[in-house]
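Hey,
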Amino acid sequence: MINVLKKKYPKNGKFNVSMGLKIKEAAKENNVPNDYGINLIYEGFDCNGELIYIGRSGIIQSDGTMGSQGIRKRLGMKQDGMYRNDFFKKEMEKRQKGISVAWFVTFNIAGQKTLPALAESEAMQEFYELEGRLPELNKSFWLIYEFPASSSNGATITKGTHWT
């Protein structure tokens, strides 16, 4: 998945977060931009372990402007009611492993115009097709389809279907 994303979104990078380090500080030290896009979080280093989370940053407003949370800022915000520094510290302690983060700018003023929600959806779909499930730390995901649509098992999908 990473190689496809690197080709599609040439402004990208990755960094490791060792046990005891804060994800927010690691993002800053590794010059993660505050542009808008997606991030993939892996168990272990160099994005070689299990993909445990797919996230996005940047919400587009109805007037076409983007919200204030770019990739770097979003990595420091909350997940499951706690700041990501604490959330991922707890995850690393539980797993007894560090984590790695791959990030991809999908939307910026320089001309990259893929909405982060679409890029996240495509990454989530690819993971689901390969694994038959969501990444462990993604608790749910909303499906967005043109209607009428049907699932692979023939069931009709209605507007607002929630994938858990």
